[in-house]
Amino acid sequence: MGPIRTLALIAVTAVAMSGCAMLRQAAPPRTAAMPGQLEPIHAAAITNDLAVFRVSSNGCTDKDDLMPVVDRMRDGSIITLRRIDEDLCDHTLADGVELQWSFEELGLTPGTRVSVNNPYQLPPTT
């Protein structure tokens, strides 16, 4: 193999490897240093510049009991919903409650790409 072919092969390999590095997504934020407890969610939707979550409730969960933590990434943002105050009521709501935050409340620009960093809690089987 001639020196020009060898250099060409090295160049192509370097470009291919750098392309793989550029396609890698940033790792989701680490949740250990965040306030409160990581909240398992029943559902989440990002629509019309709103972040909507369905979470478990014993009958007293409201928006002030949870804190959305927003991490800005290169190509969007990641929301991690954290429970700050425990729901100590004793009237469990099978479907949980729906809570929503506007992008303005979250400090996000309208149209921002958003993903959610919470685990999903499946409903109990009967």
Helical content (DSSP H or I, runs of 4+): 10-25%
Number of contiguous helices? 2
Question: Which blocks of ≥5 consecutive residues have pLDDT under 50?
Answer: 11-26
The number of E-state strands comes to 7
What would the average pLDDT be, to the nearest integer? Answer: 81
Structural class from helices and strands?
A: alpha+beta
User: What gross morphology would you assign?
Assistant: globular
Strand content: 35-45%
N-to-C span: 68 Å
Order of helices and strands: HEEEEEEHE
Rg computed from alpha carbons, rounded to a whole number of angstroms:
21 Å
Could you describe the largest sheet, including whether it forms a barrel?
A: 4 strands, mixed
What does this structure look like?
There is one protein chain. With 126 residues, this protein is an alpha+beta fold. The chain has 2 helices and 7 strands. Strands 1, 4, 5 and 7 form a 4-stranded mixed sheet that branches. A 3-stranded antiparallel sheet has the order 2-3-6. The longest helix has 21 residues, at 3-23. 10% of the residues are buried. The model is unreliable at 11-26 (pLDDT under 50).
Outline of this structure?
With 126 residues, the protein is an alpha+beta fold.
Task: Name the descriptors.
126 residues, alpha+beta, four-stranded mixed β-sheet, three-stranded antiparallel β-sheet, 2 helices
